[in-house]
UniProtKB/TrEMBL annotation:
GO molecular function per UniProt: metal ion binding; succinyl-diaminopimelate desuccinylase activity
Stated family: Belongs to the peptidase M20A family.
NCBIfam families for this protein: DapE-ArgE (TIGR01910)
InterPro entries, A to Z: ArgE/DapE, ArgE/DapE_CS, Bact_exopeptidase_dim_dom, Peptidase_M20, Peptidase_M20_dimer, Peptidase_M20A
UniProt name for this protein: Probable succinyl-diaminopimelate desuccinylase
EC number(s) reported in the record: 3.5.1.18
Cofactors: Co(2+); Zn(2+)
Sequence ranges assigned to domain Peptidase M20 dimerisation in this UniProt record: 170-272
CDD domains: M20_ArgE_DapE-like (cd08659)
Species this chain originates from: Providencia stuartii
PROSITE patterns: ARGE_DAPE_CPG2_1 (PS00758)
GO biological process, one term: lysine biosynthetic process via diaminopimelate
Length: 371
């Protein structure tokens, strides 16, 4: 199992759909595999069958190691039937199919194989550390627990293997998930005037925020966005509902602090609305002029016809927690998966791009080792 393809297929064979996650078996496999290949490893449990993994190769030089991070949990398969095996057996032409192949097991396989092939160089450098997490798809639960409960080494630079079509991405939006709760007064459904309908209160609140602008656009990330993604209220059809809540998925930009967003919405919605924070992940942005970033750009340019530009992504990654907690290293999101394939039925990844990513990671490691 020394190729990117074979290791990707092995990772796809583990059902790590989240919820519930069940990353433990896959992480144990990776821990054993990496130990056999010369890594030191440490498993970290953050719940029943929930697991993170730290793996590293120590170098002979002083300084911070190069870091790679990826998550092995995946989203559910969805309601639409799959034409291809979601657990990694089907290859058609250049496409390997499977849940999580683009997002992001192919990338994990690619940077692991690259590290193994560059092991001698890494041992003569400051080394490498892999931050492999579970629980990312539900708000970076694994990374949060790892940082809270373990000593996590700081990297000198960090590569996040999320799907980017092998295009170097220097940042991404943050995620602020808020729950707005409203209380009314219950009454018999035949006498609604005796109650206060909480659903009607929610309708009024939703009207206030529907076209509300959260703030000015960012030059690289455009405007922050807000999506009301879930609403729940009422218990039975013949009563006036006395409680309702709705959830907001806000994607933020670096020039808009989350506390400011929460205060802004609280003032807009009024005292009757109670806001609770469900997920709080800041935006990530690295200076494109950073020396290491420019080196990565040079290697990536060969894979793209047009000159590379500074680009960001609207999704969040574990970097939202890892970067500020680990000394704010320069960070690039870079992986072989195609962003449009993430969470799709019959998700696939190009085998050619998987191999290209492995070669790309190898060149980045070689640069790091020779610095």
């Amino acid at each position: 199992m020394n190729s990117t393809l074979s290791l990707t297929q092995k990772l796809l064979s583990f059902n790590t759909i989240n919820p519930p996650g069940n990353e433990a078996e896959c992480m144990q496999f990776l821990a054993d595999y990496l130990k056999h290949k010369g890594f030191e490893t440490k498993l970290h449990s953050f719940g029943e069958q929930r697991m993170n993994l730290l793996a590293w190769i120590s170098g002979s030089k002083t300084g911070k190691p190069l870091g790679f991070t990826g998550h092995i949990d995946t989203v559910p398969l969805g309601k639409t039937p799959w034409k291809f095996d979601p657990f990694g057996h089907d290859i058609h032409g250049d496409k390997l199919y499977g849940r999580g192949v683009s997002d992001m097991k192919a990338s994990i396989a690619a940077f692991i194989i690259a590290c193994i092939q560059q092991q001698a160089a890494l041992r003569n450098s400051t080394g490498v550390v892999l931050y492999l997490t579970g629980g990312e798809e539900t708000g970076c639960d694994g990374a949060k627990a790892l940082l809270a409960e373990e000593h996590v080494p700081e990297p000198g630079a960090l590569i996040v293997g999320e799907p980017t079509n092998n295009y170097p991405i220097i940042g991404h939006k943050g995620a602020l998930w808020l729950r707005c709760a409203l209380k009314g007064k219950t009454a018999h459904g035949s006498m609604p005037s005796l109650g206060i309908n909480a659903i009607y209160l929610a309708v009024d609140a939703l009207g206030k925020i529907k076209d509300h602008s959260l703030g000015a656009p960012h030059p690289l990330m455009s405007s922050p966005t807000m999506n009301v993604s879930r609403i729940q209220g009422g218990e039975n059809i013949n009563s006036v509902p006395d409680y309702v809540h709705f959830d907001m998925d806000i994607r933020s930009v670096p020039n808009l602090p989350h506390q400011q967003i929460s205060q802004q919405l609280a003032a807009l919605l009024g005292e009757s609305a109670v806001l609770t924070t469900l997920v709080d992940l800041p935006a990530v942005l690295t200076d494109e002029k950073h020396t290491w970033v420019r080196q990565v750009y040079q290697h990536c340019q060969a894979l793209h016809q047009q000159p590379l530009e500074a680009k960001t992504m609207p999704y969040f990654t574990d970097a939202s927690l890892l970067v500020p907690a680990l000394g704010n290293p320069p960070c690039i999101v870079l992986g072989p998966g195609e962003p449009e394939q993430a969470h799709q039925t019959d998700e696939y990844c190009s085998i050619v791009k998987m191999e290209a990513a492995k070669t790309l990671y190898s060149k980045i490691i070689s640069d790091w080792a020779s610095a």
